From TrEMBL, chain A:
Residues 220-282 form the NIF system FeS cluster assembly NifU C-terminal domain. The keyword Membrane does not apply. This is Nitrogen fixation protein NifU. The gene is nifU. May be involved in the formation or repair of [Fe-S] clusters present in iron-sulfur proteins. GO terms for molecular function: 2 iron, 2 sulfur cluster binding; iron ion binding. It comes from Caldichromatium japonicum. Fe cation binds at residues 35, 62, 106.
Amino acid sequence: MWDYSEKVREHFFNPRNVGALEDANGIGEVGSIQCGDALRLMIKVDPATETILDARFQTFGCGSAIASSSALTEIIKGMTLDEALKVSNQDIADYLDGLPPEKMHCSVMGREALQAAVANYRGEDWREDHEEGALVCKCFAVDAKLIEETIRANGLTSVEQVTHYTKAGGGCTACHEGIEEILVKVAKETCTAPTADKKPTPPAIPPAPTLTSFQRMRKIEETIASIRPMLQRDHGDIEIVEIDGKNIYVNLKGACAGCMMEAATLNGIQTRLVEALGEFVRLLPASQLKRAA
Amino acid sequence: MMDNAPIYLDNNATTACDPAVVEAMLPFFTEQFGNPSSMHSFGNKVGFALKEARARVQALLGAAHDSEIVFTSCGTESDNTAILSALKAQPERNQIVTTAVEHAAILALCDQLEKEGYVVTRLSVDKRGRLDLDEYRAALSPRTAIVSVMWANNETGTIFPVEVMAEMAHAVGAQFHTDAVQAVGKIAIDLKKTEIDILSLSGHKLHAPKGVGVLYLKRGTRFRPLLRGGHQERGRRAGTENTASIVGLGVACELARQHMAFENTEVRRLRDKLESGILAAVPHCFVTGDVANRLPNTSNIAFEFVEGEAILLLLNKAGIAASSGSACTSGSLEPSHVMRAMGIPYTAAHGTIRFSLSRFNSDAEIDRVIAVLPQVIAQLRKISPYWNGSGPAVESFVPAYA
């Protein structure tokens, strides 16, 4: 069992502001059932003063997810939107007299739901900012891509430095090995001197494709079709939008779209495609196709 | 029994020490303190106690020789020793065949060995958690050093056909190891009639204390020790024996033999009563695993649209202890690898609860769980965004075998 504070337990066993808010004019939905945490935050905002008159929530998740949601609604009621946007995940954790480090992502989810609800009220687009790569630090919801880019941009060389720059690894420390692996990966890219005396090993390259264009397209379709039932079982789906040389553009749909594990899903499908085709291909979200066009 | 006395249904995690086990251990903390390797009378008395314990373990496992029993510190040590030994003893072979649903003691080691260059083949399971023997046959090769397959799954209780699989492994010259941590004491085992080379067991899963395990090594199995040093355990596991716990394990094994029939009749009856009571009272839940072929004490039930840790917290408040394969109990975001391997969708995989019984449970306890659990699930579904008051807000999952 986790070492939950009395306040976390109190808000879990007796959550405040539960259920649908019928006249909500701002709704923020973050997380997904795939991730094990999902929160729908509903706020009723007075348009004249931009004050949050009421807030309610529905949460699928663990004890701290439910407690964080409950705490969030209590904190923001009566605040103006600008005041509410200043509420950090640490404020939510502090309100609950702290959360176990491994559960800090629950408070992050609360903050994101709040941002999403305010954006929804204001008619703005809002997207979670940690869905680029596989989640490495679960305590602070930091993904591999952010860690990798921060290491590269700042020439970081230790886990401690990564923690200072990104917070990743600052909680339960379970991800330290993963951060070390990213450090090694980036170091290999940027530092060739230590390996200069070794004969470089050529990367393993799959045999050259022997398929015709038509056969290749069919193979891609068949592979995607074999994966679709798995995604559909989780209320998601995938569709091919465009095949451009090595790049295959797809749309993830339903529950798969916007999921925190989206990058991991794409990576897994990409691996299957590479195996099926016997050549390197990249699976990219269709949004990148638009960017390229 | 008092109405609010705690109810323990998490026996696949650990069991209560049997009072008879505790009583047998006590002298070995006080007057029986000798080192069993010593040549004087202090040591001899303890040495004889170890010998007796070894014979009791041998009897429970149906091992042909008492020298095939090696005492270790836990199931994890036994599992790690088995695989590392097989790789070192057969350097000409570099493949490990295992399953996707093993305990972390196997999977985490295999992940590491894979990084070091070994080839790991992880067999998949079907929707009921069963292995495909054709897939297994195809995975075996002259490069296979060891096959490691659990006898029974810790989450679902699903029993694997390890006797047949051991014969198939031998056909390619590979060693066969089974992690029998959950199976020992719950189903009859007679190792001398099988081709199983190595077996792991853990004391605290069968009413012995924590911190003691066994590695069964069939005579003639090529072996390399994990711990080197003293000549304890015939040099196969150096380190002074945890004598009190080993004595306790011996008694626990003796008691397990005596209670084997009870385990398969009364404990099974209680488990089935619990399961049918829950299924009748709670909508949108189902039993996972191979229902027809599983441990008599285990029931793993998936409750859709609610999260396992939240269920556990509410059950705990009501004095009921169970466990969950949910992500949040482990601090991970991914639910149980066993549920995912069986293709249980996320809508249900996050809400699985494992009830594992023992001979110390009673009808009254089961009645109370059946009374409490429906309210717990209803309370959480009321909060869930995937439940709209009268039913699921998203598609419900019905397993093909339901």
